[in-house]
Every structure is written in C-alpha cells, then in structure tokens.
Write a structure and sequence with these properties.
Number of strands: 8
Radius of gyration: 23 Å
Oligomer: single chain
Helix content: 40-55%
Strand order of the largest sheet: 2-3-4-1-5
Distance between the termini: 44 Å
Largest sheet: 5 strands, parallel
CATH topology of the largest domain: Rossmann fold
Number of domains: 3
CATH class of the largest domain: Alpha Beta
CATH architecture of the largest domain: 3-Layer(aba) Sandwich
Shape: globular
Strand content: 5-15%
Structural class: alpha/beta
Number of helices: 17
Order of helices and strands: HEHEHHHEHEHHEHHHHHHEHHEEH
Mean pLDDT: 94
Low-confidence stretches: none
C-alpha cells in the first residue's frame, strides 16, 4: 500500500496516531493539576516503566493538555552527566517570562526572576555546566547560599508565589529522571515537599526507568508519600488492538484476525513495537485486509530494523564484559533472574560481577525488580542478544 499515507509513527516519544489505553491516566493527571492550581492537595506524578512503553508520549500528552488549560509548563529531559540546575534554569526562565503575558511584571513575578538570577549565580560556582545570562540583578541572601536543597526550595517557593499571582500552576515535566544524581534528586524532592506543605501551585510530572522508584526512596524516605508512582506497562489486548486497528480503519484498511494475532504475539503489546509492526505490515501489504503473510513478513523486516537501530544503539554502549553479562541473562531465558544464577553461568562469584551489574543499571540497561533480581529495561532485548551473539561462551 502507499507508504506516503502510512499512519503509523514509531519513534522516540513520537505521538502515535491512536493513544490507546492511556485516557484514564491523562485524566487523573489533569484532575491533579487543576487541584494544585486551586491550591488543593494533590501529589506529583512519577511514571515508571521499561523502554518503549510510551512514558514520554504520555508526558507530552499531559503537558499539551495542561498548556491548553493555561498551565506554565517546564520541559526537561535529563541526560547523563548534566547537573539538575543546568537543566532547569533555561526552561524556568522561559516559563517565568511567559507568565508576564506581555503585561507589566507584577511584584511576585519580579521576585521570582530575581530569585532565579541569584540561584543562577550561586549554582554557576558549584556546577560548571551552567551557561545562562539573566536580566535581573541578584539579591544577596535570596536563593544564593550555594546549598542546592535550600536554594532550590526558596526558588520554587518564589515561583509558586508568582503562579498564585497569575492564577496558574507551574508544572515541571522531567523525562529520564533516573539520570539525575542522587544528591540533586534529594534536593528536588525536598523542594517539592516544601512547596506541597505551603500549598503553592508548583508540581512535577516525571518519567523514568523502573529503578527510579528505589532511587527516590533512597534519596528521601518520604518520597512514597509525596509522589504518586504509576507503572506504565505494555497495553492489554483491547488497547493493543486499538493501537493497531484504529489508525488503519480511519484510512479504510483492515487487518485479518490472524494477522492481528501475529502482531500482538510478536510485540507483546508494547506501544513502540506495535507502531513498528503496524508500519511494516502496511508497507508490505498490497491491499486491504492486511493478511497473516503480510504480518509475518513484517516481523522479519521489523526485527531487522530494530536490530540495526533500537537494540544496536544500546548494545554498542556496552563493554565486552557487560555484553557477556547481558548475554548470560538472555541464555537463562525469561527473567527476572537471580544475580547468583547469572554469576554462576559466568563462572564468577556474585561479588566479582557486582560492579558490572551496577554499571549496567547506571547505564539504564537493566534494573532490579526485587532484591537480588535482575531484568532488562528494554523489552525483547534477550531475543536480539541471541541473534547477534548466537552462542554463549
């Protein structure tokens, strides 16, 4: 069929043509943001899950809806080895300027901009990766102690007061939160806690890999009471069918039931993979309905493309020793796997391979769903490892 009209959109955070199975979560977040705007209690959100489950897509959908309702949104994607202040400062400055809406700057907003300037100056000394010029003169004693926990709390407090003045809510949208260093994550949690205690309209909607739950608890013991942790997983059968079928039906194309079964079986309902299989099935099929043979050919094509890009990019970041560790995991079959079983297959002591395990967790390749257990953060990664490294040695 015509590739120009192919409705599917696999990509990193690319909105799918049909956001299936997430409506209830979007509404829950909308309710919470409206409550916080009205200075009523509601917790911040942390979405966690494997790669390819649509966390970034969900974050973007909530952000877009919030902006339509007048929220001041701050978007941050946390890469490895960048400080939290360096990530937050430019979008915070942009959000504060937008709050003026072209009108004369009111007292609360001016105070927030001065606090931001003071905070920037203090953090430039502590963190070397900050490059931001400010329009307002810093005020001595305002968010400038150099202590991130105290200064960030004071800064977000002033931003909250400015939001009250404008009748809005400021929302920090942070993707890949697991890459924020523990001490900086602790400072962020403390600041949000103080904001919540003062019922100021500043909150966070964040996303990250499964280890993020443990990281926040380690950073601050009260994190479980401050955040609503929501696991984002593969779609159930109905939602997965909708994700595949609805975009095609809008274009007058249908899937045979056996073809649909093949796609759901191969993708395990993971949103990113559903888009890949939908795209390739469409491109391979000559006419509607898309047949089982089309879907099976799509499986071959989709896996080849994933092996050369989605999986390969992650695999190439690993050292030879790390590659052998994850290949041992694949050899053991469906996870999670006990650390001792992996070490046994490698003919090593658990303590000897513990540093490898720790590095793989920090790289976002694996996580620990329970004490002593290990699992991949990337769905279907074990199959890729067996294809690229057929023999475990």
């Amino acid at each position: 069929m015509d590739q120009r009209t192919n409705p599917y959109s696999p990509g990193a955070g690319t909105p799918p043509p049909e956001l299936a199975g997430r409506a209830e979560l979007v509404e829950r977040a909308a309710i919470a943001l409206d409550r916080i705007r009205a200075r009523r209690s509601a917790r911040s959100f942390i979405f966690y899950g494997l790669r390819g489950v649509g966390k970034t897509v969900l974050l973007n959908k909530i952000r877009q809806d919030a902006e339509v309702r007048g929220a001041a949104c701050v978007w941050v994607e946390a890469p490895e080895e960048r400080s939290l202040p360096a990530l937050l400062l430019p979008p915070l400055r942009a959000a504060l300027i937008k709050l003026s809406a072209g009108e004369a700057i009111q007292a609360g907003l001016e105070k927030a901009l001065i606090a931001l300037s003071s905070f920037t100056n203090a953090m430039k000394v502590k963190y070397q990766d900050i490059e931001l010029g400010m329009d307002y003169k810093p005020q001595k004693g305002l968010a400038d102690s150099g202590d991130l926990e105290n200064d960030l709390s004071e800064l977000l407090g002033k931003i909250g007061e400015a939001a009250v003045e404008r009748g809005t809510v400021v929302v920090l949208f942070i993707d890949e939160l697991q890459y924020v260093a523990e001490g900086q994550l602790a400072a962020l949690i403390t600041a949000l806690h103080r904001i919540s205690q003062n019922q100021l309209p500043v909150t966070m909607v964040a996303a990250g890999l499964p280890q993020l739950v443990g990281q926040t608890g380690k950073a601050k013991s009260y994190a479980e009471r401050l955040f609503e942790f929501i696991r984002i997983d593969s779609l159930d059968a109905k939602a997965a069918k909708d994700a595949v079928c609805v975009p095609a039906e809008k274009a007058g194309v249908k899937f045979d039931e056996p073809a649909l079964h093949e796609i759901l079986e191969q993708t395990k309902g993971y949103p990113y993979f559903l888009q890949e299989w939908g795209k390739h099935s469409w491109n391979i099929a000559s006419a509607s309905p898309i047949s089982l043979n089309d879907a099976k050919q799509a499986t071959v094509t989709a896996l080849a493309e994933l092996d050369s890009s989605f999986f390969r990019v992650r695999f190439d970041r690993l050292t030879p020793a790390e590659k052998r560790y994850v290949r041992a995991m694949a050899e053991l079959g469906r996870g999670p796997h006990r650390s001792g079983d992996i070490a046994g297959l490698l003919n090593r002591d658990v303590s000897a391979v513990a540093p490898l395990r720790g590095t793989l967790i920090s790289k976002g390749m694996i996580y620990s769903p329970a004490f002593g257990d290990t699992e991949f953060t990337v769905p279907l990664f074990a199959g890729f490892l067996k294809r690229i490294m057929p023999k475990f040695e």
